[in-house]
Amino acid sequence: MKGYKQLTLAQLRIFMRNKQVLIWTLLFPIFLMLIFGSIFSDGNGVSLDIAIVDEDKSLESKQLVDILEKQETLTITTEKNESKAVAELEDGNQQIVIVIPKGYEEHLLHNEEDKQPFKLVVFYDETEMSVSQIGLAVISGIIDSISKQQVDYKPVITTDTIGIKAIELRYIDFLVPGIVALMILSNNMNGVAGQIASWRERGILRRMQGTPLKASTFISAQITARLILNATQALIVLLIANLVFDVSVKGSWFTLIFFVILGTLTFMSIGFIIAAISKTAESAGPIAGFLSFPMMFLGGVFFPINDMPEFIQPIIKAIPISHLSTAMREVMNVGSSLSALGLEVLFLFGWLIVSFAAASYLFKWN
User: Fold this and answer.
1) Contacts with 256 (C-beta within 8 Å, 6 or more apart), sequence order
2) How does it sit in the membrane (predicted)?
């Protein structure tokens, strides 16, 4: 026990003395969180750019423009002539162009039942059909309501709409749990691989082997020191996320800490495997980078796994970072309990068992 405590304290002192590595290890996830959070903090709202050409220039046409301008999803600009507005649409600067022809007000004021309906001209971008359909639906709804007011329309059947408020998530709420998972991966897999390979190359492990120190004590001290480091860094990242982006933890802190520990153990075991197969400290870094870089971008850290190509999703769902980021996200955003995250626990625990067995078999003091 005495050797375990001394070795844990020695490892923590090594972390603290290497201030450059410590600062950059902590700043890297915070930097990613602030950059991505600032860029994508506007949420998933839909905004449509619409140009209006008012050729009628009447009180009624002005009222129509005012109604359109009050729609939150529409950004309205006015153009003087149709050709210029259509050119803006073709250049991608506008998504829809509405032309109010001359005679609009006269048609409304002298409406007769047998008169043909007045036609507004609407141009839209065929290359962005999903966005255009939203804009056309909004415009059609407004025009339809004006038409019904003109003929004193009384509906025979109506709908009773009931709004259900789902969980409101911003991109930053999705991002922060992924950043914490990425930090655990980087600190442990890359950090352990480089450090252990370096110690073996410098003969430090061989000298430890010559002491009464047991391998289990050495590994336990490594785990304890890195758990303390990970927990501290995770708390700092979550604190900054709360202060800057108002991100909170809806679930249990116990469950969150459980996954921090499980993720730390899993990626440390993988790091020991990399250290064991690396002949030099210089080769450990590239091997760890080769494995961690794809996991960083494919493991659901920055983007939802469901948005990725279907053929690669089974592979992504088999790697540990995807289950760690999913579990962290479920706990923080949804408030899921540990029992509801059985699949994530099973996958991470499976990776831990296999990796630990492989690391124990491959690990060498010399």
Assistant:
1) 249, 328, 331, 332
2) Multi-pass membrane protein
Task: Decide if 359 contacts 276 (C-beta within 8 A).
Answer: yes
Of the ranges 29-43, 118-132, 143-157, 315-329, which is most confident? Answer: 315-329
User: Do 80 and 53 contact (CB within 8 A), yes or no?
Assistant: yes
pLDDT at 323: 92
pLDDT for 162 beyond 60: yes
**CA pair distance 193, 196, nearest whole angstrom:** 6
Give the separation between CA 316 and CA 295, rounded to whole angstroms: 8
184-225 pLDDT, tens digit each: 888 888 878 787 878 777 777 777 777 777 766 777 777 888
End-to-end CA distance of the chain: 25
DSSP state of 303: S
Spatial separation of the C-alpha atoms in residues 293 and 297, rounded to whole Å: 7
Distance of alpha carbon 120 from alpha carbon 116, whole angstroms:
13
Backbone angles phi, psi at 57, to 5 degrees: 50, 50
* Residues 6 or more apart in contact with residue 345 via CB below 8 angstroms: 262, 327, 338
Q: What is the C-alpha separation between 124 and 139, in angstroms, rounded? A: 12
d(CA 260, CA 72): 42
Strands 96-100 and 48-54: parallel
- Structural domains present in the chain: 8-39+169-362 (no CATH), 48-150 (3.40.1710.10)
Q: Is 299 helix (H, G, I), strand (E, B) or coil?
A: coil
Distance, C-alpha 52 to centroid of its chain: 36
Query: Could you give the CA distance from residue 74 to residue 46 in angstroms, rounded to a whole number?
Result: 9
Predicted structure pTM score: 0.66
118: which DSSP letter? P
User: Cβ distance 196 to 221 under 8 Å?
Assistant: no
CB 305 within 8 A of CB 223: no
**3-state SS class at 181:** helix
Q: What is d(CA 52, CA 60) in angstroms, rounded to the nearest whole number?
A: 14
Q: What is the pairing mode between strands 121-124 and 48-54? A: unpaired
